[in-house]
């Protein structure tokens, strides 16, 4: 039998990072982990999700140096506090009858666009 080359598929991680280049998908990804965290907080999962989103944005060259620094600062805070502040905030919102929603930021239109 001849050597048959079977095409290899992309890894799940590659697929995930590629899909997170889409801002709406990134927002949904972050929101999903925050919703899961309402019942079972998982600081490591939250850190991993944020890292994935950051990696996708780095791959698109769509990340400023200040954003990278903010991510490093937040990652350190999440590690040290076990993300308790974020989860407490989400729990408080839930008790008040609110929920946190993650959406993409709308780009501001220039005055000429409104004409």
Automatic annotation (TrEMBL):
Alphabetized GO MF terms: DNA binding
Lineage: superkingdom: Bacteria
Keyword DNA-binding: yes
Record keywords, A-Z: DNA-binding
Keyword DNA-binding attached: yes
Name of the featured protein: DNA-binding protein
